[in-house]
Write a structure and sequence with these properties.
The complex is a heterotrimer of chains A (244), B (150) and C (524). In chain B, 71% of the residues lie in helices and 0% in strands. With 150 residues, chain B is mainly α. The radius of gyration of chain B is 24 Å and the shape is elongated. The model of chain B has no long low-confidence stretch (mean pLDDT 77). Classes of the chains: A alpha+beta (244), B mainly alpha (150), C mainly alpha (524).
Chain lengths: 244, 150, 524
């Protein structure tokens, strides 16, 4: 809803909104009446990446991604994965992995990270696709099977990535700032340099890493390309999956 | 048949059917809870309908006394609502209080200047207090209207 | 209790911390007092300001605000039948009738005392029981949440003063209303009739103001000045002790409500509004004079809204999972200061954390003193002449509902709902059950759909929905909730018919006598 409002607001450079990828890409893809189109939003900067990882409780018999896939193959649909929302990074991650591994698991959407983590920790779901910061926070109680980042995640160096284990997918939520289309260029430049300054600040970066996020500093051009690339991927993915 | 049970039952059934029609286009998961709720609502509606028919003499319909005043108030509130984006919060509120203070006074008092003045004072005071509270203390933007005062 | 504990306790009393505690508290009371402004909203507004303060001070201020709001929201609930925040819904059921009878001050004092008790109870729990309590909250999975919502809805049996059928119907309508917007799991857009702003659904606070406030306003217009000034407020000494005396004789009432508040607070996502309603339900059920509830009895004013504060903080501090939306905002403040929930909070940041927890004791006491002293002043407010009071209430409703999302559309929605509620009340459909349906709807729906998914995965939906211990307890309680009023009504009828028609006359006569006595008592 917020993005619909942003798209409809005055492009005066004073109205900005938080940017959340893949949400802004996926919402208009999934719903015809989301209230905005992706092109209505101009990215200014991206400053945080939250890779998504697959985990089970330490008490679970599943010890690695291989075990997970094997169990799923033997019991289709039996594994429950807690995720946050439908048509979000988590949901897509689940769909991608299902396809790449040739398995069927049951995705249970929750209304946010907090309920999702609570349900998982309480044993109501067997696995979870969670944001890196949640994974880091609860690392002593869980076993992380794989992370959706390109390279190994700094805060959890022993955890392999999906790519390493043979599954060509990345899965993460990226955060930044955007403005409505038509905002004058000079204003965008001002916002861009302001946010990049913050994003490149060492202290802020350190705090982000501590909390389990990956600091990122993408300017307008880089953000645009990143979003464009992802949009291509996701559009295809959604088409495939809806066609099923 | 202007029996509250009967009317309520009718209302429940009407709402239920409308919602049911709208919901045909939803997906399974978007619909399952709704369907169960509608089933419950329909059963309740029928029960009320039957109860209304059976106990006809005992429950009379609710009587709305002075319905004119009620509609007037409602109209007034909506007028206030539409005036805010036009004249801005401050002007609309002060006028609103003044007018309502006068209209709510007993007939003979309405012509007195003191009634008008009192209501105006109250309007100023309340509007001022809330302006300060919301705009300055809590930083909630209040609509300025075309004239931009607010 | 080692020396660190006392050091932490002393920290509360530094001038800076004390100032912000009181400041937060008063702000909380003010916010609580204004319908439309919720504690969560005010907390969110203040969090950025804590950035420049030391973590301790910021947390103490936010804690004070949360507590203050829980004390303040009973004021409009009692005086104008509008809950100041959603947690005060249950306070309107008996608080407002009490005010109409001229006993507003008693109601306010009761609220203050019970909130004090609840706050202290909750803080002790927070202090000593955090880890095990938080673990318990985790055991509530989707089926439990569903049955909890159902249990909440069976409260309708207690609320529907006229007829259970109508009460349940209102509740069902509330459930229906809650489906407006985006479906939580499947993402369909439901019932928005093309208006994008409806996609977020009907905002609860907007609905609260509309459903409780507007019908009141319209009724006042209808009935005119006479009905609402009959019982003059008269200042009485010794009221405070009177009320305290009365409440001390009912320890179970207080303890039970505080316990419910604590437990509901712990459950992630569920906050004050549910706790208050549940504890009201229980108060009715265990009381010996049920008929008085809803017509103005002090027992009914006792609600659990204060221990919810501490309850919701427990899982927030230990697991990073906020027990209520307001706790979520406080969590944001914690993270802002670089503190992460978990064992770290109690070891590395132990000083700050314990000071924060202990500050609740102080906050609660301070709020208590303020509201008791202020109760006389607040209760007088009801004597304001109708012609000014009425526009004031209408004004508050409009501004309040505007302030939530800066949307005049919300105000229009609020008015519409209010008008509908007014006519529905004429038909006998009360707003209370409707609001309950609105609140419980999302919990019930999410619980249902998630449980269905779990059932699909496990191969048997029935086992998931009906086979878990906590669920069974909740199912049992729900069944009891519905059965109880029916059984007692049947029993009453049997007893009355045995006593003959004289019985009914006697009941009516004694009711009238009691009313007269109370009015007479006022004049003394």
């Amino acid at each position: 809803m917020g993005w619909a409002e942003l798209a409809n607001s005055k492009p005066d450079g004073y109205t900005i909104a938080g940017n959340n990828i893949p949400h802004i890409i996926l919402q208009p893809l999934q719903r015809k009446n989301a209230g905005y189109q992706l092109e209505d939003l101009e990215p200014v900067a991206l400053f945080q990446a939250t890779p998504i990882g697959l985990a089970v409780l330490k008490t679970s018999p599943i010890r690695s991604l291989k075990d997970f896939v094997a169990y799923a193959k033997g019991n289709p649909g039996a594994i429950t994965i807690a995720g946050s929302g439908t048509y979000t990074g988590h949901h897509l991650g689940h769909l991608q992995f299902q396809k790449l591994a040739g398995i069927k698991v049951t995705y249970i959407p929750f209304t946010g990270a907090a309920p999702q983590v609570a349900a998982f920790l309480g044993g109501h779901a067997m696995a979870i696709l969670a944001n890196s910061n949640d994974l880091v926070q609860h690392q002593d109680k869980i076993r992380i099977l794989a992370m959706g980042s390109e390279k190994r995640f700094a805060a959890l160096p022993e955890v392999p990535t999906f790519k390493e284990l043979g599954y060509q997918m990345t899965c993460s939520i990226d955060r930044g700032v955007c403005v409505p289309k038509g905002t004058p260029e000079e204003r965008i430049k001002i916002l861009e340099s302001a946010f990049l300054k913050i994003a490149r600040n060492r202290e802020i970066q350190r705090q982000m890493v501590e909390q389990g996020f990956v600091p990122v500093a993408m300017d307008v051009a880089a953000s645009k390309k990143y979003i464009a690339d992802l949009t291509v991927d996701y559009t295809e993915l959604v088409k495939e999956l809806e066609g099923k | 048949m202007s029996n509250t049970n009967f009317l309520t039952g009718l209302l429940a059934l009407a709402v239920s059917s409308l919602a049911f029609l709208e919901s045909r286009s939803f997906t399974f998961f978007g619909r399952v809870f709704l369907d169960w709720t509608l089933i419950v609502l329909t059963i309740l509606g029928l029960a009320l309908l039957i109860k209304g028919l059976l106990l006809r003499e005992q429950v009379k319909a609710a009587v709305v006394k002075e319905i004119g005043k009620v509609w007037l108030t409602v109209l007034g509130l909506f007028i206030y609502l539409t005036l805010i984006p036009i004249f801005g919060f401050i002007i609309a509120s002060v006028s609103g209080f003044t007018l309502s203070g006068v209209l709510l006074s007993p007939g003979p008092m309405r012509k007195l200047f003191s009634t008008w003045w009192r209501s105006f004072e109250v309007g100023l005071l309340v509007t001022f207090i809330f302006y300060v509270l919301f705009k300055l203390a809590l930083a909630v933007p209040l609509p300025g209207g075309i004239l931009g005062i607010g | 209790m080692n020396e660190n504990f006392w050091l932490a306790a002393l920290q509360i009393f530094t001038p800076g911390n004390l100032f912000f505690l009181v400041f937060g508290g008063i702000a909380g009371i003010v916010v609580g007092c204004l319908p439309g402004l919720t504690a969560t909203m005010a907390l969110a507004l203040l969090v950025p300001f804590t950035f420049t303060m030391p973590a301790v001070t910021g947390l103490i201020m936010l804690g004070g605000l949360y507590v203050g709001a829980m004390f303040g929201d009973a004021i409009p609930a009692t005086l104008i039948n509008t809950p100041g925040t959603p947690s005060a819904i249950a306070t309107t059921f008996d608080g407002y009738p009490l005010a109409k009878k001229g006993m507003a001050q008693q109601a306010l004092i009761t609220n203050a005392v019970s909130s004090l008790f609840g706050g202290i109870f909750g803080t002790i729990a927070l202090l000593t029981l955090s880890p095990p309590l938080a673990e318990m909250g985790l055991k509530f999975g989707p089926p439990e949440y569903f049955w909890m919502a159902i249990f909440g809805l069976t409260i309708i049996g207690a609320l529907a003063s006229e007829s259970i059928l109508k009460g349940l119907t209102a509740g069902a309508l509330g459930l229906l209303l809650s489906t407006v917007g985006i479906s939580p799991i499947a993402g369909d857009v439901r019932f928005t009739f093309g208006a994008p702003s409806l996609q977020a659904g009907v905002d609860l606070t907007v609905a609260l103001i509309g459903l409780f406030c507007i019908p009141q306003v319209l009724e006042m217009v209808e009935e005119g000045a006479k009905k609402y000034r009959v019982i003059q407020y008269q200042s009485q000494k010794g009221l405070f002790l009177q009320v305290v005396n009365y409440l001390i004789r009912k320890p179970f009432l207080m303890i039970r409500s505080a316990l419910i508040g604590l437990i509901v607070g712990i459950m992630p996502g569920v906050g004050g509004n549910v706790a208050a309603l549940l504890s009201y339900n229980e108060a009715v059920r265990w009381s010996k004079n049920k008929a008085e509830f809803g017509k103005g009895t002090i027992d009914g004013v006792e609600t659990a809204n204060c221990s919810v504060v501490q309850g919701s903080i427990i899982p927030m501090l230990t697991l990073g999972i906020p027990g209520s939306p307001a706790a979520a905002v406080i969590l944001g403040a914690l993270l802002l200061h670089g503190m992460r929930p978990g064992p770290e909070l109690f070891t590395k940041y132990g000083g700050t954390t314990y000071t924060f927890i202990l500050s609740f004791f102080v906050a609660v006491v301070v709020m208590f003193i303020l509201t008791v002293l202020g109760s006389r002043f607040f209760a007088k407010m009801i004597s304001v002449p109708l012609k000014h009071l009425l526009p004031l209430i209408a004004f508050l409703s409009i501004i309040g509902s505007y302030a939530i999302r800066n949307s005049l559309l919300d105000v229009a929605m609020m008015l519409l709902l209010g008008i509908l509620a007014y006519f529905m009340q004429k038909l006998g459909l009360q707003s209370g059950p409707l609001v309950l349906g609105l609140i419980m709807g999302p919990f019930a729906e999410q619980g249902l759909v998630q449980s269905l998914l779990m059932g699909q995965a496990a191969g048997s939906v029935l086992k998931v929905m009906f086979g878990r211990p906590i669920s069974l307890v909740l199912i049992g309680l729900s069944a009891l909730s519905i059965a109880w009023p029916l059984i007692s009504a049947w029993r009453k009828r049997t007893i009355l018919s045995e006593a003959g028609s004289q019985g009914r006359l006697f009941e009516e006569a004694s009711d009238a006598a009691v009313e007269t006595l109370m009015v007479e008592g006022e004049k003394v």
